[in-house]
């Protein structure tokens, strides 16, 4: 038996701000296909985690965690959900706050989290062979696992879900946080800063990221966010494994959020659309092509391109709905556009899972022109709801969306190469032309219906990676 402990800052169904939570929630389920692996997950116990879950948690133990001169009490709670055991690290000072990120001391909060995870290992009823940490918030756990060796022979895997967010702090906080020899500064410092993500890249036994294309891209300065030299240094241990989605969870046939469930029938999608149009006050026109965006409103998602051309594009006979929250610049832009074009545009400035599902179910096209995209789950969810993705060819978008080819009839979406607003406009217009050309549109929809992005193959790749690090007894 191989024990794997996931360390992460978010996880569906408990707490989610983005795709990371979907992956941390669904990969342990998928790993069950290998009976030799048992995966458990450890997370912070945020205030935002609903009572529905808290009431199911059992208290496990308490202990003190030292963070430099600070002494903080930690309690560990646990619950089992869908046959997976979860541990929650509770601490009033760091995690009893509104929301989960965005505090001036986020760096300190997740250094604390890393330290607490390492100390928790002595108290858990589970001895990991592999500590598998996700993104910068879990990076310090990897560094400390390698330096302090809390469990004999325990190996580490670190997965980069997004290299842009690194967890940076002034380097002079090092002695303030860690009781480590100064020789360890080198592994945790980058460009004069204490860097949580780089600490993990330096210390992990294996590094993965969430698509083959992104694994290549981040070795280049354009995508590497300053860490490309570090990734080149470690390229022998770096591999890209595509994310999947939980196809039980994202299933239009059973999704309770939808007004009308369907397998692939367009007529049923249109019924959903009409109900949505009524709800949002858009003109009720079932056959009007509907383009949607569902995203965090940040520059990464290509929203500057959208801003440049959207007003021109909506002069066509189309409707457009955006669902998202984030930077005020984008929130204002979309709200203003919706005010000026109430018959064409709806701007839903909120985070709402149920509404997201209704949008995926109602739309014809899902627009995702990201500047960079490690994997992207939204385009996979769109495909699952038989909505055609329109993407920029980067990272996981390039690995999952094949542009429609009129000559061969292949492809499950539309794409463009350069980060250029007029390339986006051209491909939006092209998608509309194909929509109105019945033979081509039907062929494209057949391809969309066949697209499958379950976890099966990727879970197999992770199993193999674990196996390389810690061969299970049957192979010994
Ligand atoms: P990222 O992790 O960079 O945010 P992904 O495409 O990997 O991007 O994952 C985004 C996830 O968050 C998808 O499940 C998407 O449906 C969801 N999501 C994004 N914005 C919203 C929102 N405003 N309301 C509901 N769900 C959202």
TrEMBL record:
Keywords: Glycogen biosynthesis, Glycosyltransferase, Transferase
Domain of life from the UniProt record: Bacteria
Every Starch synthase catalytic domain range: 3-231
GO biological process terms on file: glycogen biosynthetic process
Domain Glycosyl transferase family, residue spans: 284-433
Family: Belongs to the glycosyltransferase 1 family. Bacterial/plant glycogen synthase subfamily.
Pfam families, alphabetized: Glyco_transf_5, Glycos_transf_1
This protein's pathway: Glycan biosynthesis; glycogen biosynthesis
Binding site for ADP-alpha-D-glucose: 16
Coiled coil: none
SUPFAM superfamilies on file: UDP-Glycosyltransferase/glycogen phosphorylase (SSF53756)
Keyword Glycosyltransferase belongs to the record: yes
Reaction catalysis annotation: [(1->4)-alpha-D-glucosyl](n) + ADP-alpha-D-glucose = [(1->4)-alpha-D-glucosyl](n+1) + ADP + H(+)
EC number: 2.4.1.21
Role noted for this protein: Synthesizes alpha-1,4-glucan chains using ADP-glucose.
Gene3D superfamilies linked to this entry: Glycogen Phosphorylase B
NCBIfam families: glgA (TIGR02095), PRK00654.1-1 (NF001898)
UniProt-recorded name of the protein: Glycogen synthase
Gene source species: Oceanobacillus zhaokaii
């Amino acid at each position: 038996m191989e024990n794997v402990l996931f360390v992460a800052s978010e996880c569906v169904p408990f707490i989610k701000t983005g795709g990371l939570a979907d992956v941390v929630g669904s990969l342990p389920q998928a790993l069950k296909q290998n009976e030799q692996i048992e995966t458990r997950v450890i997370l912070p116990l945020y205030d935002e985690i609903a009572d529905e879950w808290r009431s199911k948690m059992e208290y496990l133990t308490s202990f003190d965690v030292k963070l430099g001169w600070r002494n903080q009490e930690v309690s560990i709670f646990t619950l089992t959900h869908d046959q997976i055991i979860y541990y929650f690290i509770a601490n009033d000072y760091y995690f009893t706050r509104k929301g989960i990120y965005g505090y001036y001391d986020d760096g300190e909060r997740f250094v604390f989290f890393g330290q607490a995870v390492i100390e928790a290992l002595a108290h858990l009823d589970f001895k990991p062979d592999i500590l598998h940490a996700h993104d910068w918030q879990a990076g310090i756990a990897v560094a400390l696992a390698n330096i302090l060796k809390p469990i004999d022979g325990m190996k580490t895997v670190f997965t980069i879900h997004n290299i842009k967010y690194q967890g940076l702090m002034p380097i002079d906080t090092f002695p303030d946080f860690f009781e480590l020899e100064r020789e360890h500064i080198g592994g945790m410092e980058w460009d004069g800063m204490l860097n949580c993500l780089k600490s993990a890249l330096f210390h992990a036994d294996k590094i993965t990221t969430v698509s083959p294309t992104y694994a290549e891209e981040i070795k280049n300065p354009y995508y590497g966010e300053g860490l490309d030299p570090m990734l080149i240094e470690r390229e022998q241990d770096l591999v890209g494994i595509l994310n999947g989605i939980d196809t039980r969870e994202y299933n239009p046939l059973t999704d309770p959020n939808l007004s009308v469930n369907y397998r692939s029938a367009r007529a049923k999608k249109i019924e959903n659309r009409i109900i949505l149009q009524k709800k949002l006050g858009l003109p009720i026109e079932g056959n009007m092509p509907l383009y949607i965006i569902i995203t965090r409103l940040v520059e990464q998602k290509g929203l500057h391109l959208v801003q440049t051309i959207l007003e021109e594009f909506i002069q066509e006979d189309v409707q457009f709905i955006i669902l998202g929250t984030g930077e005020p610049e984008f929130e204002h832009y979309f709200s203003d556009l919706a005010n000026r074009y109430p018959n064409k545009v709806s701007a839903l400035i909120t985070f709402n899972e149920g509404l997201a599902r209704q949008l995926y179910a109602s739309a014809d096209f899902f627009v995702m022109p990201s500047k960079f995209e490690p994997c992207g789950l939204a385009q996979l969810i769109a495909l699952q709801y038989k909505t055609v993705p329109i993407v920029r060819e980067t990272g996981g978008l390039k690995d999952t969306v094949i542009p429609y080819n009129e000559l061969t009839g292949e492809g499950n979406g539309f794409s463009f190469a350069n980060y250029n607003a007029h390339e986006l406009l051209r491909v939006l217009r092209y998608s509309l032309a194909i929509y109105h050309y019945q033979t081509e549109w039907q062929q494209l929809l057949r391809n969309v219906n066949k697209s499958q992005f379950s976890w099966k193959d990727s879970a197999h790749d992770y199993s193999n990676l674990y196996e390389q690090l810690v061969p299970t007894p049957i192979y010994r």
